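A favour, since you know our structure tokens better than I do. Would you make up a two-line entry for one protein for me to read? Write everything out right here, beneath this request.
=====
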Amino acid sequence: MPDPSTFAEALEVLDTRGGRGAFPPAVVASLQRGDRGEMAETPKADDPRIKRSDRTHHRRTNDGRRRSGGGRAIARLRMCT
């Protein structure tokens, strides 16, 4: 699923929800690395990998077999290399 948010937007949320000091340092450091371009953003809607993805829904029957439709969604991305 595409994610339109950015690292900068995530940092803004932290700033408005108690400040960066209210969150685990590892989370803040990771978002800051992403904001500096040291980590790739998540795929956006126009990413070709998203266009080739599919989403499959499965649920377990009472006897433990898998059945399509409803239930918990399992998303698969066929990533291009």
